[in-house]
Amino acid sequence: MTNDDLEAIASQLALGVSLLRRRLRQLPATDEATIPEMSALVRLQRSGPATNAELAKAEQISPQSMKATLKALEERGMVDRTSDPADGRRVVLSITPAGAKAVTAKRAVRSQQLAGGMAQLTSEDIDALRAAAPVLERLAEAL
Description:
Oligomer: single chain
Mean pLDDT: 91
Low-confidence stretches: none
Order of helices and strands: HHHHEEHH
């Protein structure tokens, strides 16, 4: 496959993923967490405890913005602050059971919404999505 072929596929894929992501964000969700809050919770859930600076860098936002996001989550009991055992001057944040519950609930709502849309597709389309899902995850990890 040529580089031009790969770029054409990449362009079409980027458009489709962008449209799907935008549409999912437009659908109503039952939770109170904002997009930045959910991103921080998911990152803490996947990667484990982290500092404000580490989370800000990973999410590509300013430390000040991340601080505000984490403060709101802490006030709602979704993250905990503890001293870093290796360096007591640093504060490490971790997801709480309430935060994990919020992530699970958000995923369940989005899965139900996607399943509703998929019900409108052909069985061939659904088979293609089943095959593409793990490939998309590997692609995301490769970037």
